[in-house]
Structure formats: structure tokens, C-alpha cells
Amino acid sequence: MAGFAGSWPPEIESLLTAAEAQQSQGQTGRALATLRQAKDQARAAGNPAVTAQVTMALGSMQAAAGLAGEALATMREASDLFGHAGDRYSQIRAKMQVAALQVADGQFDSAESILQACLDGASQLGDGQLLSEVHLTAGQVLLAQRSAAAAADEFRAGLAIATGLPQATAQVQLRAYLAVALFNCGNIVEAVSLLSEDAKVAQAIPDGIVGALALSSVADALVAIQRPLDAVTVGQQVLSRLQQTGGAAAAASVNVRLGMMAFQRGDRIMAADQLGQARRQLGAAGLAEPPMLTQMLAQLGS
Known about the structure:
By secondary structure, this protein is an all-alpha fold. The protein has helices spanning 10-24, 28-44, 48-64, 68-85, 88-104, 108-125, 128-144, 148-162, 169-184, 188-203, 208-224, 228-245, 247-264, 268-284, 291-301.
């Protein structure tokens, strides 16, 4: 499955597929209820590993729905369940999500403590991919605290590990965040140079959707360092790759982001064009229109 990767018992697989479809149609409440049903079935079957995985999926969807308090409690539960199941790798990933949710709630000290434990655990496991991701999250926590120099150190440490990995996604994300941190430190030239290099790495990723997501990280960073025109150029590359492989929902998502970028820099004509394309793509695919898209189009109409 695209949304919930893993190997699942058939009855759980069916529920997860239904939840994913409900979420894509904007039926978040139903999707959450379906995931809770899947979690209950996994627990009733006495399968702690699957229960932990479904619990983590539920927490992720709660976070995406803006239910931060519920998501935090659910992710803590998932971490405990992975611990009971003896899955240290997944437990660290769940703890990273806990830390991210704590940052959003302003609980920086708790998040830093958890991430230090995650760094220690990932080092013990010897998993470079996981360790680079923990450095990424730790840097994000410091960046949220406006500690840009310390954040840059974390991103550099993660990048040094990720550059030697077969998958380029982690290094693209780390380089993008490093550019933002350096920009916040006043080093604009190096930030722009890093993102230029990052775009080349992302463009070279052969998988269409993975490459598009990597380019999307570059586009977001370009917006953060106040390079909106460059961001639109990269965003168009994202859209081109998704139109080949990602379907209407993915392409519409990129159109919404391009429209938002245009709106933020005052280009109402391009904003209306991009957001209008997103509406038509979703309508043709029979998908629900996100409230944000409706609201922005209404603002442009006024």
C-alpha cells in the first residue's frame, strides 16, 4: 500500500485500504474510525507487532487532521507497543514522531531528551538511514527554537551520514534544512548554493514519486529562504514528474502549493490559474476539494 507500508493480515489490510480511500476523499472522521477498528482487531487477535503498526498509522492520521493532543498520546502508545514487541527500530521511529509533536506543542526540553535517546539507540543499531533521520528531526527541533547554528550542526552531521546511503531522499531533506538554517545565520550565498546542488540530486532520483517528493523539499526550502521564483521553477518540475506517475490527487496537491507560492508573492493571476487547475483535477477524478483550496479560490474571487 502507498499510504501504510508493511505486510498485514488480510482483514487489517482491508481496513487500512478503506481508511486510505476515505482520507483521500476528505472523509477524515470515517478514516480515523476505520483505523481505530483495525487497531481493535489487531489487539483482539493478539498480534502486538501489527497493533503497534496500526497505532502508529492512527497517530499519523490524527496529526495530519490537526488532532495534536490525541496524536501525541497515540504515538506514545505506539512507542510502548513497539517496545513490548521488541522492535527497537520502529520504536525509535515512533519516538521521533512523539518528539515532533512535542515541538509543535512547545515542549522543547522533552523533545530534546527523547531525541537524544533516539540518537543513542540508532547508533547502537548501526542503522545509517535511521541515524540520519534522527539528526534531521533534532535539527528541526533546534530550528524551531531559533537555534539556527546548532541546528546547522545537526543537519551537517546527518548529511555526512546520509550522503553515503544508497537512497538519496534523506540527504536531500538534510541539505534543504541545512540551507534554511544557514540562511537564518545570514549565510545566504551558501544556502542558495546548497539548494542548487540539492535540486540536481533530487532530479537524478529515478523513481518518479520519490523524486517529486525530494524536489518538493527543495521547493519548500527555496520559499523559506525567500527565493519564490526559483521555488516555482522547481515546483513545476515536481508537477511534471507527478503528472507522469502520481495521478490527479498528487498533481492537484502540487498545483495548490504552486498557487500558494504565487499568492504569497502577490501574483494573483498565476495563483488563480494553479488553484483552478487543482480544482479541475480533483473534480475530474471525483475527489473531494480540500477546504483550504476552496477558501483560497474564494479569496481570489473577491
